[in-house]
Predict the 3D structure of the following.
Amino acid sequence: MRPTEIKVMIIDDSAVVRQVLGAMINQAPGMRLLATASDPIAAQPKLSLEWPDVIVLDVEMPRMDGVTFLRQLMGEHPTPVVICSTLTEHGTATSLEAMAAGAVDVITKPRLGLKDFLAEQASCLLQSIRQAARSRPRLLRPSRPPPAVSAPQALPKTTDKVIAIGTSTGGTQALELVLTGLPRVVPGMVVVQHMPERFTAAFAARLDSLCAVEVKEAEHGDRVLPGRVLIAPGGRHMRLARSGALYRVEISDGPTVNRHKPSVDVLFRSVAQAAGPNATGILMTGMGDDGARGLKEMQAQGAYTIAQNEASCVVFGMPREAIRLQAVNEVLPLDQIAPAIGRIAL
């Protein structure tokens, strides 16, 4: 076995998924199918023999569902996991729960035409496995939100401040940890999390239920207000615009930027122009380099810039590139980012 070989386990009650995806993995350079199992209970004895580098996991399975297993796994033996699940409106929320529990990526599989789908999406599936193998998952325990601070809304000293956050792989957990650690009154925040179109509304609603701040999926024309977090909708770019003393967001279609839509660079560049030194840019865990150049533009316009440190990142790609470009004023571990935002609010 080559040292760089990625060992993959498939846990899925579909024999078609196990057969077709297993064959793809064995044929892919640098990968080996370690084992398959019809559910997590059946996987246990196989895991005791040899541990995989990546697990491809279904959500709905007999005896134990994938989310329950994922929580146990991340608490006992954090391992890169790619969710491969049939999604409905209900299932979308379930898959978001899985991502919050530590899944690196989610692949949507249809109820019909599954064999053809797996064959057609082979490149995407294998790329997700490769990216997962480079990640370093860890169990994150979000802190309880601090007590609400008694302060009037929209104080003059905070209305002109904007905090822009960009994140990708591992970002669902990271954002939950940061946002649940904030008091109710903080500068308005705009966020790009690389996420498919059908996920962002449910993701924002879930965070809103956990946080002292208001969290919502951004709509065109939404105002950026103290205590409000606007998350870019999947499949659309989000930009910050200024009208007098007020900030609003503009939501638009267009080509992908750095292979992403929404793109962190698109948001950060607009923040650089609209807010300049009144902004703070934060780049967190993620694959690739989206956001690094935009963060550099923010810094050039006088914004304070922060990158998540390597030790606390699931994937140290985007922050590494920003640091390489000397676009960062401060490098912080994940658990120090919420306190840093709190200092900005003062």
Confidence is low (pLDDT under 50) at residues 142-159. The domain at 156-345 is CATH 3.40.50.180 (Rossmann fold). The longest helix spans residues 15-27.
